[in-house]
Amino acid sequence: MGYATQIQFLIILTLTFSYSPPSLAANPSFNVQSFGAKSDGKSDSTKAFLTAWGAACATTAPATIYVPPGRYLLQNAYFSGNLCKNNAITIRIDGTLVAPSDYNVIGKTGSWLKFERVTGVSINGGTLDGQGSALWACKNSGKSCPKGATSLAFYNSNNIRISGLESLNSQMFHILVDGCRNANLINVRISAPANSPNTDGIHVQQSSGVTIMNSRVGTGDDCVSVGPGASNLWIENLACGPGHGISIGSLGWEMNEAGVQNVTVKTATFTGTENGVRLKTWARPSKGFVRDVVFEHVTMVNVQNPIIIDQNYCPNHETCPDQTSGVKISDVTYQDIHGTSATQVAMKFDCSKTHPCSGITLDEVNLTYRGKSAIASCANAGGTTKGAVNPTSCLY
Predict the structure, then answer these.
(1) Which one of the listed residues 174, 178, 203, 244 is annotated catalytic?
(2) Residue 11 belongs to what H/E stretch?
(3) In what helix (H) or strand (E) does residue 212 lie, and over which residues does it extend?
(4) Which residue, among 159, 256, 238, has the nearest Cα to 202 in the 3D structure?
(5) What DSSP designation does 34 have?
(6) How far apart (Å, rounded) are the C-alpha atoms in residues 258 and 229?
(7) Mean pLDDT over residues 344-357, rounded?
(8) What is the pLDDT of residue 323?
(9) Residue among 396, 359, 354, 356 at smallest CA distance from 376
């Protein structure tokens, strides 16, 4: 090989190994402050947030909406997916979103922050402050008040992820998942006082493939509530208290109501709550059902009703013509449930007289009351026991 040929070879070799393809353009990011949002907690930033949403929806590349540190006042905001071209929008929040202090501004709107018909939306971090205390005071005084708004609602949406979000003092529900497929709520923190009415932590209904993991919920109502049409729901590593526990129901208000099935609650701790794990149905005719439910590895700490099925729910004994529930409950397993009850009746199965509970399994249950054995109460409840069960089972 001649000298000139060697030089040409070395140049080609150098170019071959040093070449790298041109870098792809970074995915678009939209800072809400660029659209006029103010972080002073006083200026209305609703329009800026919705404009940023529109910009993200206009691109098909994965996009980020960024909320810098600070407090951002938002009135009710509707994030619609109807005209959204994007199925990968991440909303990264380093600040706090604040609801109006006057509850009348959003109290009749149903939802404060509402996402509908969206796909692939992720919310990472941040705090939602619903400023609900004035509305709770109105309700607790017996005055005429608005119903209140849910802080964060997803309707008819798919592939949703909420991680590292904190929700404080919602007017009503903190988070609602309704009509959705594949929603993951990870490392969520929810907080409202024990006397705040109707402030359910997470409510799931008409949805499938919902996962709630590694979360802490303390409210004035259910930590997690499950409504009609929920299926394939997985709850793991949940700390609940104060509040009313995890509740499947109330179900059975409607005659033709979708059932609830394939629900698993695994590794949960209830501290000072009104209930632990509860199934609740109206004492009304219904074609609804609950089946294939598992509660396992659950710790109760001074819980008033650690294990309860109530199929005679009818406040004020109104609107329940036959005083019997049509909802059929079957195949419910309680495995490794232990701890302390704040009342003597630690297990209560008050099932429908026309549609008795069947297939209840008690497996390694140990609940005590003031250091002594608690008791169980059963009506129209059939099932089996495995291992040591305390209090003694009353299932037939």
Answers:
(1) 244
(2) helix 3-18
(3) strand 208-218
(4) 238
(5) G
(6) 5
(7) 98
(8) 86
(9) 396
State yes or no: is 221 an active-site residue: yes
Cα 278 from chain centroid (whole Å): 16
Report the alpha-carbon distance of residue 194 to residue 216 in Å, rounded: 14
DSSP string, 213-225: EEEEEE-SS-SEE
State the residue for tokens 């019997």.
Answer: 324
Which pTM was predicted? 0.93
Query: 97 pairs with which residues across the strands?
Result: 72, 128
Sign, Cα dihedral of 237, 204, 327, 194: positive
Cα 202 from Cα 200, distance rounded (Å): 6
Query: Which position has the token pair 């930590």?
Result: 223
Q: And the tokens for 317?
A: 């004994």
- Complete DSSP assignment for 291-337: EEEEEEEEEEEEESEEEEEEEEE-GGG-S-SSS----EEEEEEEEEE
Tens digits of residue pLDDT in 239-254: 999 999 999 999 999 9
**Cα within 13 Å of Cα(179), Cβ side:** 10
Q: What is the Cα–Cα distance from 396 to 394, expressed in whole angstroms?
A: 6
Backbone phi, psi, residue 257, to 5°: -110, 140
Of 314, 255, 306, the C-alpha closest to 280 is 314
Question: For position 12, what pLDDT does the model report?
Answer: 39
Our CA angle for 371, 374, 380, nearest 5°, is 170
Token pair of 52 as six digits: 């940023």
Q: In sequence order, what are the beta bridge partners of 216?
A: 189, 239
Mean pLDDT across the stretch 307-334?
93
Cα distances from 233 to residues 174, 181, 261, in angstroms, run: 18, 11, 8
Cα separation, 111 vs 122, whole angstroms: 18
Nearest by Cα to 327 from 343, 315, 310: 310
For residues 334 and 307, the answer to whether their CB atoms sit within 8 Å is yes
Distance CA 350, CA 348 (A): 6
CA distance 217 to 81: 29
Q: Which of 178, 221, 222, 350 is catalytic?
A: 221
Written as six digits, the tokens of 350 are: 């008050």
* Mean pLDDT, residues 285-306 taken together: 98
Catalytic annotation present for 338: no
Measured CA to CA, the distance from residue 201 to residue 220 in angstroms comes to 9
Contact yes or no for 369/344 (Cβ under 8 A) = yes
Residue (of 352, 338, 318) closest to 391 by Cα position: 338
